[in-house]
Design a protein that fits this description.
The structure holds 2 protein chains of 2 kinds. By secondary structure, chain A is mainly α. Chain A has one domain. Chain A has 6 helices and no strands. In chain A, helix 1 (2-47) packs antiparallel against helix 6 and helix 5 (104-112) runs antiparallel to helix 6 (122-169). By secondary structure, chain B is of the alpha/beta class. Chain B folds into 2 domains: 2-115, Beta-Lactamase, CATH 3.30.450.90; 125-289, P-loop containing nucleotide triphosphate hydrolases (Rossmann fold, 3-Layer(aba) Sandwich). Chain B is 29% helix and 27% strand. Chain B has helices spanning 12-24, 55-66, 74-79, 128-131, 149-162, 207-218, 231-242, 256-259, 263-270; strands spanning 30-34, 38-42, 46-52, 81-83, 89-99, 102-115, 139-143, 174-178, 199-203, 222-225, 246-252, 276-280, 286-289. Chain B has a 7-stranded mixed beta sheet, with helices on both faces. In chain B, helix 7 (231-242) packs parallel to helix 9. Classes of the chains: A mainly alpha, B alpha/beta. The interface between A and B is medium-sized, with 19 and 15 residues.
């Protein structure tokens, strides 16, 4: 019985550690997905043939979840609401923030991509997206460093903590 | 109903006030929206509705017209209008943004004039004896804004492309260069208005380049183009007319005399490229002129 309890404690702490460390790698991959999506948006704006809604729908279809879902929801709101694209982007990000592994400051940077979206000239749109991409690149580098520093450590510490708790209780 | 594609663009209170009037009076030609002012509908009769166009509605209307994508319409906005589904044209006024003295963009869009595109089939039928005789005459339609030049031009394109059994006109290869998407009212490249069965449409392309492209690629028998007047249009028109293509075009002017005051039109007239001139006025009556500008009827 004691052994079964020990196995449960160790596997639970391993699972918690795995979840925590996954947050680090998810943050990196989600920042990458937003970067790719914004590069696609920038290209579409530079080409000038498609509307933002059409572009966002194609981004949603080609982007993995949960980031793809953010774009899908944004496209749905664009077609249904009278509000500006910027307001809708902010609202969509706030609604989906809990599903993302992004930090508050990452969300704030992604939010900037929506500032005056669809209300300014082609050149201004391109400059704004480039600025957001530069900021996201910095965030991604910081996220990779954090992943390398803490991800493995958290997994090891959580297993060790689980083992220690099991030993103490036995 | 030609105005149906306009209604989704209008804010709900305005749309529900305007729809019954448009239904009741099909002669209404324009819906005018001015921020903070009452809605105006004009045509032969004028209507001032007791509904205001608010600032919030203005922002929403701009979002709908630009489809949240201002950058797509920059070129059109520089010219002061946007064409929507169905070929309806929205004239826009606001604040021009200048760069080195040239209009770079428009901002604070506040005044809108929605011109309802009307498809009047058979509008050109009474003119056919003067337009077609063993082949299409190269014709210049002269008229002021809102005189129905484009409606007439669209019907000429339709008859040229479809033919007319009654008038013994065969269907010919017809090319339409539709710079402002008003003639064919293209949506995603597909005409929403009837411009004929043997008709090819080059949508949203500058006229002079468009005419040359169509001459090279589509070998038309008839070339239809709206509102000529720029210097570069003359070269393309000369190319087309010397290649044996019949050109039907329009120009903004009240009379033939007024039209030939423009250097380009004068040049074209002197070269004798157009064999027919038709003055169109707002009362929808026509004056037919020969190649020298003398009234035939």
């Amino acid at each position: 019985m004691k052994w079964i309890g020990a196995v449960v404690i160790i596997s639970s702490s391993f699972f918690i550690g795995w979840r925590k460390s996954k947050m680090f790698s998810d943050r990196v991959s989600q920042i990458r997905r937003f970067e790719t999506a914004l590069i696609t948006l920038e290209s579409a704006i530079a080409f000038g043939a498609e509307s933002i809604e059409t572009t966002i729908r194609s981004i949603a279809a080609s982007t993995e979840q949960p980031v793809g879902n953010v774009f899908k929801c944004f496209a749905d709101q664009l077609s249904a609401s009278d509000q500006s694209a910027g307001q809708l982007w902010k609202k969509t990000l706030q609604q989906h923030a809990h599903q993302l592994a992004l930090k508050k400051e990452d969300i704030q940077i992604v939010e900037q991509a929506g500032h005056k979206l669809g209300l300014i000239t082609q050149e201004a749109e391109k400059r704004k997206i480039k600025h957001v991409l530069r900021q996201l690149e910095k965030q991604r580098e910081e996220a990779i460093a954090a992943e390398q520093r803490f991800s493995g450590m958290i997994r090891t510490v959580s297993v060790l903590a689980g083992m220690m708790t099991a030993i103490l209780l036995m | 109903m030609s105005y149906q594609t306009i209604l989704p663009y209008l804010p709900e209170p305005i749309s529900s006030a305007v729809a019954p009037l448009l239904n009741k009076d099909p002669a209404i030609e324009e819906i005018r929206l001015r921020t903070g002012k009452k809605i105006e509908l004009s045509g032969p009769k004028q209507y001032l509705l007791d509904v205001y166009f608010s600032e919030v509605e203005r922002a929403s209307f701009v979002n709908k017209v630009t489809k949240h994508s201002f950058y797509r319409l920059e070129e059109q906005l520089k010219r002061g209008y946007v064409t929507i589904e169905g070929g309806h044209r929205i004239g826009i006024a606001g604040q021009a943004v200048l760069k080195e003295g040239i209009i770079a963009s428009m901002t604070n869009l506040s005044f809108f004039n929605i011109r309802i595109a009307k498809e009047k089939k058979e509008a050109a039928t009474p003119l056919l004896p003067y337009l077609y005789k063993d082949g299409w005459n190269s014709t210049l339609l002269i008229g002021p804004p809102r005189s129905g030049k484009t409606t007439l031009l669209r019907d000429i394109a339709r008859i040229a492309g479809t033919g007319s059994v009654k008038e013994k006109i065969p269907p010919l290869k017809t090319s339409v260069v539709d710079e402002r998407s008003e003639i064919a009212g293209c949506l995603h490249g597909v005409p929403q208005l009837d411009v004929g069965t043997r008709t090819d449409v080059l949508d949203a392309c500058p006229k002079s380049e468009g005419m040359m492209m169509m001459i090279r690629s589509m070998s038309p028998d008839v070339l239809v183009v709206d509102e000529i007047g720029r210097t570069e249009d003359a070269y393309a028109l000369t190319e087309a007319l010397n290649a044996g293509i019949a050109v039907v075009a329009t120009v903004h002017a009240r009379t033939f005399e007024e039209a030939i005051r423009r250097p380009v039109i004068r040049l074209i007239r002197e070269s004798g490229l157009f064999t027919r001139y038709i003055e169109v006025n707002r009362r929808r009556s026509y004056t037919i002129l020969d190649d020298q500008g003398q009234a035939v009827i």
